[in-house]
Amino acid sequence: MNWTRRSMLVLPAAALAQRPAAPPARPSIVLILARDLPAWALGCYGNKEIRTPNLDELARAGTRFNNCLAYAPVPEPGRTALLTGSPQGGRSLSDRLGAAGYRCGSFEETAAAVAFAGQQKPGQPFFLTLQLPGAGGPHDSHMSVYANMSFEHQGIMQGAPNAAHGKERLEDVNASFRQAAAAISALDAQLPPLRRTLMERGFFDNTLLIFTSTNGMLLGRHGLWSDARASEPPNLFEEVVQTPMIWSWPGRVPVQAARPELVSSLDFVPTLCDAAGIEGPEGRSYLALATSRALPKGESWRDLAFANHGDVWMARDNRFKLILRENAPSVSELYDLRQDPREFKNGFDDPRYLTVKERLSRELDAWREKPASRIGALRHRMMG
User: Fold this and answer.
1) Around Cβ 36, how many Cβ atoms within 10 Å?
2) Staple 285 to which of 75, 225, 274, 299, CB 3.0 to 4.6 Å?
3) Which of 31, 268, 248 is nearest to 129 (CA)?
4) Which long-range contacts does 77-81 make (Cβ < 8 Å, 24+ apart)?
5) What is the assigned CATH class of domain 311-383?
């Protein structure tokens, strides 16, 4: 039968009711992926001195996650974990989306990303990744903004004795921080052209726009500069594992919202596959959290995440953080983040936290899936 407007008008109501609803169109996905950018350095995450107006606007237009943790808090391993969902790497998100019919493009220049977006066709979903430098990127164009700032509210400390990677930036830490702040503002300025193109091309309403980072940075906090490599032995302070995660998706993601749950960079690929309606890797999706929907009946979100760099391992829940150093157990750490959010008081040897330490150690052992004999020996050394 040839369907015309006239035949539709005379079709019985019962027949219309029986016609299946058209499936929702798959969203296009735009990922703006920074490196070396900590959540704490953005205005929408509470920073009062570093200016990030466009990221702040993006957060107001959507939902930000207040506890998004990088599994591998250094740039390259962090990118691998985020874009494959596995610490060891594997099939990438772009491979999965490309196989499902998405047009995929990855760029390191905003102009090229804008051009790619402008070439897309309505009804054809695309996956665009724009990778940008964060605190270590170009900064000259925004230096004047910070010329007279003292940054006394940033928690900057003098160089720590164990400073390692990036320690040369601590010789004049205020000047270094001024450059980092300018670089972050320069990154922020890259957002408007891409958002404008999405709107002008009519893609914005069905585009999931995400901003995140591969890893955080200390930028002078704890007397250290860079990421997990900033100290010897390596560190897993909140500043290096906490990354921004901002979602904007009109009609699907609540505006001016914030989620408190712990999510991991390893959860990202399962979540994006869920949003695209395709099969993803093993893992957990936080799409329901991002869209403020109830979790399936009988399920609850478990606030537990892990991180790793070399022989340093972290298990963190919504209050406590355990850091174990396999080759140097005497310098392991435990922090009560509610009482000590800046991680100045190491409670590893405090008997009040023995139960917490044992619980998180078991969780970490299970995550690492080490042979039982080695796990037992490791725990015995760690617990004393």
Assistant:
1) 27
2) 274
3) 31
4) 77/309, 78/35, 78/214, 78/215, 78/265, 79/33, 79/35, 79/214, 81/265, 81/266
5) alpha beta
User: pLDDT tens, 339-354?
Assistant: 999 999 999 999 999 9
- What is the C-alpha to C-alpha distance for residues 368 and 348, in angstroms, rounded to an integer? 20
- Rounded to two decimals, the pTM is 0.90
Neighbours of 360 (CB within 10 A): 23
Q: How far apart are alpha carbons 88 and 237 in whole angstroms?
A: 22
Domain spans, the chain? 28-290, 311-383
User: Of all residues in the chain, what percent carry a pLDDT higher than 70?
Assistant: 90
Contact 116, 103 (CB under 8 A): no
Token pair, residue 313, equals 């391992």
State both tokens at 215: 């890893």
230: alpha, beta or left? (left if phi > 0; alpha if psi -120 to 50): alpha
**Type of residue found at 206:** N
CB 353 within 8 A of CB 347: yes
